Structures are given as C-alpha cells and as structure tokens.
Amino acid sequence: MAYRLPVPNSRTAKPQAAVVYNPMKVDADKFKKIVNAAAKAANWASPIWFSTTEDDPGQGVTASAIRRGARVVLAAGGDGTVRAVAEALRGSGVAMAVIPAGTGNLLARNLDLPTGNIRDSVDIAFNGQDRALDLGMVEIVRDNDDHEEHAFLVMAGLGLDAKMIKNTSTKLKKAVGWLAYVDGIARSIPELRPVRLHYSVDGAPNRSLSAHTVIIGNCGALPGGLLLMPEAKPDDGILDMAALVPRGRFGWLNIWNKIAWENGVLRKSAIGRRIIDLSKDVRDVRYETGSDLNMIVDSPEEFQLDGDEFGLAKSVRAWVDPGALIVRVSKPRS
Questions:
Q1: Of 99, 128, 129, nearest to 116 (Cα)?
Q2: pLDDT in the model for residue 166
Q3: What is the CATH number of the domain that holds 269?
Q4: Which residues does UniProt call coiled coil (predicted)?
Q5: Pick from 230, 196, 202: which is nearest to 214 by CA?
C-alpha cells in the first residue's frame, strides 16, 4: 500500500526533514552538502541533523526529530542505525528514508532500494512515495529474567547465524563487506551444535525442535543474493520462520542447494517453479508462518536482530505489528 503526504501550498510552512546518521559510517561533510541541496531543490525546509552515539544508536534522537515536526527521517548508516530509527518511528506515521551505508544493507536490498549511490537514496527521501511495512517485534528474556522489547525489520535469529555475527570481525567487514561473514562462519564451526528448544506458533501447543539455526523473517533475502524465505513479504501481516536442520553427511549441502539454487535461481522462472513442484521437498530446511511465535531454549543461546548481536536469550517471543512503519520508496516508473 502506498501513502502520499499532502503537498504544502504557499500558505503553509515548508515540510521538515530530519537526518539521523552514524558518524562512523557516513562522511558527514559530504553527506550534508548532498542532503541540503536536495532539500532546497524539493522546496523543503533546511533539515535537522542528529548524530548517533554509543549511548543513543538512534531511538532517542529519532524521538526528538518527531517532536520537532519531521515529516521524514533519513536513516543513514548500517542496519543497526536503520533498525533503531525504525523502532522509534513505530506507529508515528512519520516516514523513514533509508540511506544505506553499512555492510549488509538488508532492508534496502529487500526493498530494491539503491545501495551504492547516496544521491539516489537522498532523492528518494524527498521525491519518493510512502509504503506501509510491517515491523517484527521481539521480547527477549535473559538468563537473569530481565525482559527487553525490540523491533526488527528483516530477520531475527537464534543459533548458528547469531554466533556467526558475534564472531565476525568488524575490521574485516569494513575491508571486504558482507564476505566477512564467511570468516565469521569459520570461527563459529567449533561451537557448532544443535539448539534444542520448544516453540509454539499462534497459540498452538508447544512442539520440540533441534536445529542449528532458527530464523524469524519479516523479509526473505540475505546478502549475496541468497533467498532464505522465498514467500516472505514485508507487508503481508505475518512472519516467516526457517529452521535449518541438517540431516546426515549431506545435510548442509542440501541446505545450500535449497537456498542458493532452488530459492535463488529456479524460483525466478516458470519452468524452474515447475521443477520445484515436481521435486522432493528438502526437509533440512523447515518453514512455518504465523503472526506470533514463542521459543524457549534448553540453555541460553546467542540472538541477533537485523545482523547485530543481542546477547544471550533463554526465551524469545516474536510477533508482527502490521503496517507499523512508513518507508519512503522509489516511485514506480511510467
């Protein structure tokens, strides 16, 4: 669904934009020139600028932007900055424009937004259209029974993928981008073991599961063009869950074949989809869908949100908040 903000006339104040940027990811001086010029060309007021800090990765300054009347907030940084801004914008009706400047740029890739050209991203912020997206929400329970609530835009994960993120070198990410996660996987192999848990979808009775990774998705695509959850859509009001359960000596090969070949290649053509329909389903990757998911692990496990580590969790409840976030996207071509 697309939303359009009313166009101001000569009797109204110019619309206000705010920029929340991560100074570790963005060349601030160059970026400010681009944004200020785009705002002026679009007849917007001079943008309000906020820098993230270690103490405030984006939620607090985004709340300030809302109070100061921002109609759109440009989130400039990596996936963590985008997630923090989105968390603060939840239910506000204020649009978020994504200015990707990180390693994965997961939301931008899933929405087919530009990832390599800041000018194009800024142009969408002032001249694009608005789209309502779902937000994934999680309540994490720590080993000391502390409860935390967070939002996510793309994926939340428990098990091997969270260990991989924890073990990935920040310096290597800056040098080679998302390929650094390959090193993170190698570092996680010594910790490789199944996660044992009980889970329930939409209030159904608990079921037991032993999997190396459980991922909850609002979107389906990973870096490198891998499509983990081919049916996931960011505005369908449900969450998708994928459990990686490698069986036997070829288990991981079956998983790779499912994600990279079947989901990433065959599904793109009618003939390929016909081949999938005629093929035996790969049970090493198991899918579920629902709007509310509860997981309780036998022992605390590493947890991640949108590619950022979030420590150990002994239980997680995930649910969807439909249409809770407005995102500025490209206008369709004529």
A1: 99
A2: 56
A3: 2.60.200.40
A4: none
A5: 196
